[in-house]
Amino acid sequence: MTDDTLPERPRAIGRKSIRPTLQPRDLMGDPEALAGAWQAQVITLLPQAFPGILGESLIGKALKDGLWQLHTLDLRTYGEGKHRNVDDTPAGGGAGMVLRADVVGKAIADAKANARGITPVIYLSPRGKPLNQEMARSLSKTDGVILLCGRFEGVDERVLEHFGVVEVSLGDFILTGGEIAAQALIDATVRLIPRVLGNGDSIEEESFADNLLEHPQYTKPTVWEGRAIPETLLSGHHAKIAAWRKDMAERLTKERRPDLWRAYCAEHGLDPEEDQEL
Ligand SMILES: C[S@@+](CC[C@H](N)C(=O)[O-])C[C@H]1O[C@@H](n2cnc3c(N)ncnc32)[C@H](O)[C@@H]1O
């Protein structure tokens, strides 16, 4: 399955000079340090918000180990005049301020000059295509992304048109700025880059891997607050465990996500209205 709004990288990239001792903030400031690694360039008025959560846990370790790199472009430095103005009032009137096309344009041009191979330019925006696992998978096969984080009322439309910017939304709600959405997109993408999680199986088995939500998970203690782990999971019988998990995943998907259930049924030649012995 591919996402037709996002191009795929045609070939595997070779890594050259990986410097595993660099700390995340060093990597952020040095886009040429890790030739070949998947590269996220983030255009933002709040560069101090990065790496944020992306510097933690497995994604942060992968950043440190050079499996991907992060570079922020401070939009303020592209601003106009003594006060480095980046925004102005909306043409036609109305509340709030809009990020100027000329200012954003210079930042995008710089980011594009730093990018290599296939690097889509994405504006995090509530008007965009909703971020999903298929899109993350598709992005993980590119050479990187340029992410534009909006603020205020958004961005002058002309700059989006000029650079053929793809709009991507985190969901049907309004955030104050694009930074949280950018971090979510990067996290969802980077964890799919080979060797980042160190366990390919866990990616294969996750929710959405086959248009199904994941089955329930359990661990010790065997009984908690009077609730026991389902017997099948303790049976040691691998085929029965796999069948139980598939059955639970199908039930959950049918109950909670009719859209995914229809896609799953279409892929497997099933009738979504029929009770598949659930
Ligand atoms: C206050 S919002 C602007 C909302 C805009 N006036 C509208 O109604 O569509 C400021 C910025 O936050 C980011 N943002 C807000 N909600 C978002 C969402 N659901 N997904 C991705 N980015 C979002 C965008 O970058 C946006 O330019």
Automatic annotation (TrEMBL):
Keyword Transport: no
Positions annotated to bind S-adenosyl-L-methionine: G150, L170, G171, D172, F173, I174, L175
Catalytic reaction equation(s): guanosine(37) in tRNA + S-adenosyl-L-methionine = N(1)-methylguanosine(37) in tRNA + S-adenosyl-L-homocysteine + H(+)
Keywords attached to this entry: Cytoplasm, Methyltransferase, S-adenosyl-L-methionine, Transferase, tRNA processing
Subcellular location: Cytoplasm
Reported function: Specifically methylates guanosine-37 in various tRNAs.
Family under the similarity heading: Belongs to the RNA methyltransferase TrmD family.
Stated name of the protein: tRNA (guanine-N(1)-)-methyltransferase
Gene: trmD
